[in-house]
Protein: S26 family signal peptidase
Organism: Nocardioides kongjuensis
Amino acid sequence: MNARRLLLALHWSLLAVLVAGVVVAGAWRLGGGRWERVETASMGTVAPVNTLLWVEPVDAASLRVGDFVTFHPPGHDEVSYSHRIAAVHPDGTFETQGEITAPDPWRLSADDLVGRVVMRWYGVGWLVVAAPVLLAGGLLVWLVVASLRDRSWRLPVAIVGTALVLSVAIVVHRPLVRAQQLGFGEVPGGARATYVSTGLAPVRLQAHRGPHVDLRDGEVGSVLITHRDHEGRYGISMSPRIPPWWWIVLVAACFLPSLASLARPGPRIGAHALDRSLRAAR
């Protein structure tokens, strides 16, 4: 299979995947399913911030303790929560609770129930949030590339433009390194700070001149701070802790444009043009 056929097969494969995705999403929606994006860290590592939840309708009578459900708090149909069922009462009402939070202050009935979570797509919610930037930037890059008459410039411009669009989305929405403070209080010998990681990349929380804790998305950890900074405050710094396999993926991604350029057939020099060039050289 030559390079042209390989690229054509790749294009058709991507189109088939896109069509299949649209069909599956449409069937899910027509069957009563819906999607919910996690916006808080209450479910810890079970459903970190910006996990995309697939929620299907369910009979409230079939629910059991531990089921992961989506619901509206009583009297607030405009708000949705996704927590586990903590208790089921004989009258058909039930209580809920997050993985890292206290029990919710309400009892729910079947009318408050939206459905049961059947799938969790970690991190996909960030794509939903960044969709306006990615779509607008992608359209702009496509228009610029399509306007270039010299085909040799199209691939480099597409690569640089795509990198810029991704960079803008990352700067605007900051999906990689994030953490939310859950608690802070003085203890004998210093202060203890508790955080939950809410970004895609693992993070290290380092106490000033003290210990540290490494957290992945949705994990909760605490740090004992025993030294104050030069301003007399207890301080914590946060930095990414990129694992080795992340670097391997990033380096491999950097070589993809080179592989794509090698797969594209280069310009061919005709026999007559080559003969003329040889004559001119003589």
Observations:
- The mean pLDDT is 86.
- Helices lie at 3-30, 124-147, 154-173, 244-263, 271-281.
- DSSP finds five helices and twelve strands in the chain.
- Residues 232 and 250 are 40 Å apart (CA to CA).
